[in-house]
Write a structure and sequence with these properties.
This protein is α/β, with parallel strands linked by helices. The protein is built from 8 helices and 11 strands.
Length: 249
């Protein structure tokens, strides 16, 4: 598939990428090589009119939960705010990486910090999308104890996204951890209910419920393979699709 041949199967997409997408395997911080690769893939999919919003994690810098679990000096709510600020750092880095390859962007934050980002305002976000700008949505929902997965699902509902694309380091949803069990089964399609009943690690339960109630499919795929974001946007059968219907009978 060439860049010019990418024809979106959707009008509006919410892309969720983890903080680990900003760094090399086993490392932390921000790797410009990894960031450039993601930015170039995103540039390729927005050339033909796709409206794209992005929620990124902050685990490459800090996970609020790690302090909430082990520290008595930092209270859990503070730790979660620290994690949210890490997503703003990633958002700033992604914004510059995208603009360096010619993609118009806006960074919006759920925590007000007008010096570096716009506040998240739904109508303003929609207007940016309609004008062809990629909108990076940072700082989660602005409240502690809410994962970036749940923030992505909520934002997808707010902006009426057609689908949530979850970029991961694996090529879909498995019956078990494929790193621990080489015989684990990879699903091409699965229902929200099956994911919840089997406690499969797709997105957290709150995020799954939001997508299920609003009938927003989730596509889980390996973003590390160059071209996969374009394939997912084009509607190709890659990774795992989580939907109300699930597997065909």
């Amino acid at each position: 598939m060439t860049v010019s041949s990418v024809r979106p199967a959707y009008k509006r997409v919410l892309l969720k990428i983890s903080g680990e997408s900003f760094c090399r395997e086993g490392e932390s911080g921000i790797s410009m090589a990894e960031l450039s690769s993601v930015a170039e893939q995103i540039r390729d999919v927005v050339k033909n009119g796709l409206q794209l919003a992005i929620v990124c994690g902050g685990g490459n810098i800090l996970r609020g939960k790690q302090f909430a679990d082990i520290s008595q000096q930092i209270v859990p709510s503070t730790a979660h705010y620290m994690g949210m600020l890490a997503t703003v750092i990633n958002g700033l880095a992604l914004q510059d990486a995208l603009e360096s390859v010619g993609v118009a962007t806006r960074l919006q934050s759920a925590i007000r910090m007008e010096g570096v980002a716009e506040p998240f305002i739904r109508r303003r976000c929609l207007r940016h999308l309609e004008k062809g700008r990629v909108v990076i949505l940072a700082a989660g929902t602005g409240s502690p104890f809410v994962t970036t997965d749940t923030a992505a699902a909520l934002r997808a509902r707010e902006i009426d996204a057609d689908v949530v694309l979850k970029g991961t380091k694996v090529d879909g949803v498995y019956s078990e951890d494929p790193m621990k069990n080489p015989h684990a089964i990879r699903y091409s399609d699965i229902s929200f209910r099956e994911v919840l009943d089997q406690n499969l690690q797709v997105m957290d339960a709150q995020a799954m419920h939001h997508c299920m109630e609003h009938n927003i499919d989730i596509i889980v795929f390996n973003y590390k393979k160059v071209g996969n974001i374009a394939r997912a946007v084009a509607g190709e059968r890659i990774g795992t699709r989580v939907s109300t219907e699930g597997r065909a009978s």
